[in-house]
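Researcher: Let's do a round of design. I'm pasting the C-alpha cells now; please hold your answer until I've finished.
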C-alpha cells in the first residue's frame, strides 16, 4: 500500500509540473496575449514575438526534462537503490563508506543525466537568442569545478548525516540543526571562497559611477567600501547585481553586463539591493527555510522509520531508507513551494519600494525594469497559477504598476 502511495505522489508532482508548464506556455504565447500597457513604450512587437519563441523553446526542453527526471526517479526507486545498496555492502563493512558510495553513485548518475540538458540549454537555446557567451572550454572547466566544489562541500555533510543516522533513530532535529548550520556557513563562505572560483571580481574603475554609488550608500547609511564588477559576460549577456556578505566583508557586486545602463538606472538597481539588505531579507529567508527544512526532516524521519520497520522496499540500510523518504517528502513539500515564493515576491516589492524612496522617484527603477525585460526576453504574461507556483519575483508588469502607484 505504502509503495503505491509513494509512486502516486511522485507521479502527481511530475504531472502537476507538466500541466503548469503547458498552461503557462499556452497562456503566454496565445494570439490574445498582448504586451502589458505599461511596457508598450519599450517592448516592440518584434521583441514580444521573440520572447514568445524563447519561452516555447525553453518549455520544450523543460517538458522533456520533467519526463526524464520522472523515469530516473522510478528507476532509482525500483531498481537503482536496492542495487546500489547491495553493491556498497560488498565494498566495505563501514556504513559510512557504504553510504558515501551509495550517495556518490546517485549523485554521479543524476549529474550525467542532467548534463545533456544543460549543454542543450546553453549551446542551443541560449545561443540561438544571443545570450550565451561561453565556449566549450569554459563549460567544461565550469563543470569540473562544480563537481569538485560539490564533493568538498557535501562530503562532510553526508558523513555527518550518516553518523547521526547510525546512532539515533529520532535524528530529525539533529540533522536539521546540522543542515541549518551548513546553510549559514555557506552564506558566509560563498562570496569569499566559492564565487571567485567561477568569476573574476575587480574593483569598480569608473570613478564617476563609483562616486555616485558611494554618495547613495552614504545617503542610505550603508557601510560598504567594496564595490566590485563581476565578469558575468564570460558566460551570459543577462544582467544583475547583488549585495552580499556581513560586516566588514560586505560587498556590492555589479555584473559587467549592467554597466551600459544609465547611471540613474544602475543606482536604482543598487538601491533595490540595499533595500533587500536593510529589510533583512536574507536572514528572514534563512529563518523561513530553516523552519521548512526542520518540518521536512521531521516528516522524513517518520517515513524513514516506517520504511525500515515495515520492509517496504528491498533495502535494509539507514542511508537507503533516508534516500527513499527524502524523495517521497520532497515530492510532498513541492506542494508548499507557493508559500516560500509568495514571501519572496513580497520582499521584491519591499526592495522596489525602498529603491524608489531612496532615489526620490520610481522613474529609474521603472526604466531599469523595462530594460531588463527587453534584454532578457522575459515573459511579460505569465500564467497566474504558474506565477504563484514558480515565480520568486513578481511579474514585471506588477512591479511597474506598484511603482507607478507610488508615484501618485
Ligand atoms: Zn530583488
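Researcher: That's everything. Go ahead.
Model: Designed sequence:
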Amino acid at each position: 500500500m505504502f509503495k503505491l502511495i509513494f509512486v502516486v505522489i511522485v507521479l502527481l508532482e511530475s504531472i502537476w509540473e507538466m500541466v503548469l508548464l503547458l498552461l503557462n506556455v499556452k497562456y503566454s504565447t496565445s494570439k490574445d496575449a498582448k504586451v502589458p500597457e505599461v511596457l508598450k513604450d519599450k517592448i516592440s512587437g518584434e521583441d514580444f514575438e521573440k520572447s514568445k519563441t524563447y519561452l516555447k523553446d525553453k518549455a520544450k526542453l523543460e517538458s522533456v526534462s520533467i519526463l526524464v527526471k520522472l523515469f530516473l526517479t522510478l528507476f532509482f526507486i525500483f531498481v537503482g537503490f536496492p542495487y546500489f545498496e547491495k553493491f556498497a555492502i560488498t565494498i566495505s563493512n563501514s556504513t559510512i563508506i557504504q553510504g558515501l558510495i551509495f550517495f556518490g553513485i546517485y549523485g554521479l548518475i543524476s549529474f550525467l543525466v542532467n548534463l545533456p540538458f544543460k549543454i542543450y540549454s546553453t549551446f542551443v537555446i541560449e545561443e540561438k537568442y544571443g545570450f550565451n557567451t561561453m565556449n566549450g572550454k569554459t563549460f567544461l572547466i565550469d563543470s569540473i569545478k562544480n563537481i569538485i566544489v560539490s564533493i568538498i562541500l557535501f562530503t562532510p555533510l553526508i558523513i555527518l548525516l550518516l553518523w547521526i543516522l547510525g546512532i539515533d533513530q529520532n535524528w530529525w532535529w539533529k540533522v536539521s540543526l546540522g543542515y541549518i548550520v551548513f546553510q549559514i556557513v555557506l552564506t558566509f563562505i560563498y562570496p569569499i571562497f566559492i564565487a571567485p572560483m567561477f568569476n573574476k571580481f575587480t574593483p569598480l574603475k569608473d570613478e564617476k559611477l563609483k562616486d555616485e554609488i558611494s554618495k547613495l550608500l552614504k545617503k542610505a547609511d550603508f557601510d560598504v567600501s567594496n564595490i566590485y564588477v563581476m565578469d558575468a559576460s564570460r558566460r551570459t549577456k543577462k544582467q544583475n547585481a547583488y549585495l552580499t556578505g556581513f560586516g566588514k566583508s560586505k560587498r556590492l557586486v555589479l555584473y559587467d553586463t549592467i554597466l551600459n545602463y544609465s547611471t540613474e538606472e544602475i543606482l536604482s538597481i543598487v538601491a533595490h539591493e540595499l533595500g533587500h539588505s536593510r529589510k533583512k531579507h536574507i536572514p528572514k529567508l534563512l529563518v523561513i527555510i530553516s523552519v521548512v527544512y526542520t518540518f521536512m526532516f521531521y516528516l522524513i524521519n517518520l517515513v524513514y522509520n516506517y520504511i525500515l520497520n515495515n520492509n517496504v522496499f528491498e533495502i535494509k540500510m539507514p542511508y537507503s531508507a533516508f534516500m527513499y523518504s527524502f524523495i517521497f517528502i520532497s515530492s510532498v513539500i513541492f506542494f508548499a513551494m507557493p508559500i516560500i515564493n509568495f514571501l519572496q515576491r513580497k520582499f521584491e516589492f519591499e526592495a522596489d519600494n525602498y529603491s524608489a524612496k531612496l532615489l526620490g522617484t520610481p522613474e529609474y527603477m521603472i526604466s531599469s525594469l523595462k530594460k531588463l525585460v527587453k534584454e532578457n526576453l522575459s515573459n511579460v504574461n505569465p500564467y497566474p497559477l504558474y506565477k504563484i507556483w514558480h515565480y520568486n519575483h513578481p511579474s514585471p508588469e506588477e512591479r511597474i504598476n506598484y511603482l507607478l502607484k507610488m508615484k501618485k
